[in-house]
Design a protein that fits this description.
The protein is mainly α. It is 57% helix and 4% strand. Strands 1-2 form a two-stranded antiparallel sheet. It comes from Kribbella speibonae.
Amino acid sequence: MSRIFTVTFASVYPLYVTKVEKKGRTKAELDQVIEWLTGFGAAALKDHLAAGTTFEDFFAEAELNPQASAITGVVCGVRVENIDDPLMQKIRYLDKLVDELAKGKPMDKILRA
């Protein structure tokens, strides 16, 4: 089991916020991307952050967007579409979306609209 599975989402979320804000994007846009992927609205996201939910539990409770399989590309030198472990793939989907947001990609492209 990868160490990231037991890391709390709340410990990584501020890093996501910092990453996108440094590139001129907003926390609201980040939250929109997270909601698109996981189905967690603002209240549910806030609850997970307050509860210290691990990535494993976070994605266990998520209703992954049916279009998530359209997320392709490389994160940390690995193609997300080729990751065998389902949980690791979901975590990398989120990483890829955050990367796309930080790189200035339009929201309709990030959300696979």
